[in-house]
Amino acid sequence: MTDTTTPKALWRRNLHILWFCSFIVGMAFSEIVPFLSLYVNSMGTFTKAQLTTYSGIVYAANFLVGAVTAPLWGMLADHTGRKLMLLRTSLGIAIAMGLMGLVTNVWQLVGLRALQGLFSGYIPTAQALIASQVPREHSGAALSTLMTGGTSGNLLGPVIGGVLAQFFSIRMTFFVTAGLLLITFLLSLFCVHEDFQPVKPEPATSANAPTPVSSTKRLLGSRLIFILLSSTMIVQFGNSSITPIISLYVKQLMHNVGPITIVSGIVVALPGISNILAAPRFGQYGDQHGSGKVLIAGYILGALVYFPQGFVTGVVMLGILRFLVGFADGALFPEIQTLLTKNAPASLTATVFSWNQSFYSVGSTLGAVIGGLIAAVFNYNAVFIFTALLMLSNFALIWWGAPEIRRNSPKTSQPK
Question: Is 210 a member of any domain?
Answer without folding.
Answer: no
